[in-house]
Amino acid sequence: MNIDRHESMRITTHDDVVRVRQCVRDWAVGLGFSLVDQTKLVTAASELARNTLIYGGGGTLTLEAITNERKRGLRLTFADEGPGIADIDLALKDGYTTGDGLGLGLSGARRLTQDFHINSKPGEGTRIVIARWN
């Protein structure tokens, strides 16, 4: 897999979550994703950016334009140094929330993307990598 270009941004305020959505949309458009795929990526990114801010205390997003054989894709990595997730399987269940949301953030992001990887340990933060291929 090749990384054609990348960009990183901080997520420390609610305005940053809005910037994440716009940046992901811009990248998806630039990579030629359909409107449906753009919407899926932006929705997943919005949920994960919000989680990074609210539950992780802020963090970073790294966007990467990637190629693999004949496919082009967009990979997004959300990372924080927050409290981490004690039970990842439980956190990925629809309806599970530790806040006041609907409990669809992580599970929804997983459904909206083609690649989804999560690494989290209590006290060590969380790293979530998602990708969608065009």
Describe this structure in words.
Helix content is 37%, strand content 34%. By secondary structure, it is an alpha+beta fold. The protein has a single domain, classed as Histidine kinase-like ATPase, C-terminal domain (Heat Shock Protein 90, 2-Layer Sandwich), CATH 3.30.565. The chain has a five-stranded antiparallel beta sheet, with helices on one face. A hairpin with a 2-residue loop joins strand 2 (59-68) and strand 3. The radius of gyration is 14 Å and the shape is globular. The model has no long low-confidence stretch (mean pLDDT 90).
A few lines on this structure:
With 134 residues, the chain is of the alpha+beta class. It is 37% helix and 34% strand.
Observed structural traits:
134 residues; alpha+beta; 4 helices; Heat Shock Protein 90
CATH architecture: 2-Layer Sandwich
Span from first to last CA? Answer: 14 Å
Measured by DSSP, the beta-strand proportion falls in: 25-35%
- Could you tell me the radius of gyration in angstroms? 14 Å
Average pLDDT for all residues = 90
Helix/strand class: alpha+beta
Q: Poorly predicted ranges (pLDDT <50, ≥5 residues)?
A: none
Number of strands: 5
SSE succession = EHHEEHHEE
Biggest sheet, spatial arrangement of strands: 1-2-3-5-4
Residue share in helix: 25-40%
Q: Please count the helical segments.
A: 4
Using the coordinates above, name the CATH class: Alpha Beta
* Broad shape: globular
Q: Within the CATH hierarchy, at the fold level, what is the topology? A: Heat Shock Protein 90
Number of domains: 1
Main sheet attributes: strand count, strand direction, barrel closure: 5 strands, antiparallel
Q: What do we call the CATH homologous superfamily?
A: Histidine kinase-like ATPase, C-terminal domain
